[in-house]
Amino acid sequence: MRVTGATFLLLLALLAAAVLQTTAWEDAAGRTRTLQSITASNATSPKKKCTLRPKPTTTSGQNSTTAIPTPTAVAPKPTTVAPSPDTTGNEADPTSPSSGSATTLNFAAKPDGLYLNGAKFTIKGANYFGMEGELLVPHGLWGGAGTTTLDAVAKFLTTSDFNAVRLTLAVDAVLNNKEVASSKISNEKELQTAFSGKTLHYLDVLDYVVDVFAKHQILVLLNCHMLVANGGISPLWYTSSDNRNWIEDAWKILATRYKNSWNVIGADLKNEPHGEATWGSGDANTDWRLASLQMANTIHKTTSKWLIFVEGMDKSSRDDPNFPCFWGENLMDVERAPLELSVSERLVYSPHVYGPSVSDMSYFHDTSFPSNMPAIWDKHFGFIRGNKKYGGAMVIGEWGGAFEKSDDQTWQRAFAKYLKDNGLSWFYWAVNPNAGDTKGLLKDDWTTPREDKIALLSEFKGTPVP
Questions:
Q1: Residue 272 annotated to the active site
Q2: What CATH number did the domain enclosing 348 receive?
Q3: Number of domains the chain is built from
Q4: Choosing from 248, 311, 329, 398, which is the catalytic residue?
Q5: pTM reported for the whole predicted model
Q6: Which of 12, 289, 359, 362 qualifies as a FRET site for 48, CA 20 to 30 Å off?
Q7: Which of 134, 248, 272, 311 is catalytic?
Q8: Is residue 235 within 8 Å of residue 275, measured between CB atoms?
Q9: In the annotation, is 188 catalytic?
């Protein structure tokens, strides 16, 4: 076939587009990114969400037409200690697989907080996201200017008295142990060397992340954040009958793999139930309380040592329309239907709490703001702390904000005081500077701390990990 000049130019353009497509992906905000552009403009993960924002009828990547991952046989992490689980939570595991604590860590969740080996223990934690998104790795490690390393993140956290990280995961990536492009985590030279000429998979990355934090005496809480990587947060723990058991199956894999990793302390079962989710309704299709119990039982059959973090919702049967909740914040129905796990002292209620930089609420404009807030927080979740009849501890799973405008600064200072006054442990959202409307603990260069946020949190000290 004779190729004209115009045809040749068209073919050349198509070839160039195909080459670019091979190095492109969508970031957490759904924008197309390339390896060249990512170093200049970081991907952004916008925070969310409250009852004031309409719930989408379908979530990208999470409707019933989504391809169902076929779970693969995932080998557990190697260990030299055979587990001996029982129903009391006193089995011999976990022990350190390669490095970390010389002391076996036995956590207990009691109404007045967490205990480690019988002594009161305070978590000062930070969320670190990315593994739930399109890249399938923690953000900021992709190489080039304005990036970081896991070792640098860990050192920043320990220097600022943090002792724990909440890692956000994608359920389908766990089930399929998805292949990961090593270029997306190119700053981690040790990992690059270990997998030179080999295929890197999702759980390989998670193994590595857990081990790096272990070397720095940092605890890890695993969180099933999204059903489908970069697919948004589903209202329920499933979106169709086909994926109803995805999260439970993912926890079987994770519990088996990390039960002997000394610094993995537990499971945050599902991120932010909302919308049609109920608590204590008895409807197996919507009752988050029933689903939580089933998942907890599944995990504890493998490792009874793990703490089980259960988040709230955005609605309840006891709602006050004048005081709406953010996604994950509403635990009001616990008062009439508390949880009771099969393993005692493992339950952690874990609400998510946000302020004006995430979504506006009428009570942020009350003339008594912020002195009106403690009563609202008590109403939404705070009543649980210290009350034995609810059967668990309380740890705030997410809180934060941009800390730029005066109303958000006022809110964060008020909530920090509430945490201090009530002796609560927490995980701040987030390490990542590309955290949308909350920004991060680091500036956009991924290395410079946000000194104003660090100062806000400086009065809190995480208990040293032995």
A1: yes
A2: 3.20.20.80
A3: 1
A4: 398
A5: 0.84
A6: 289
A7: 272
A8: yes
A9: no
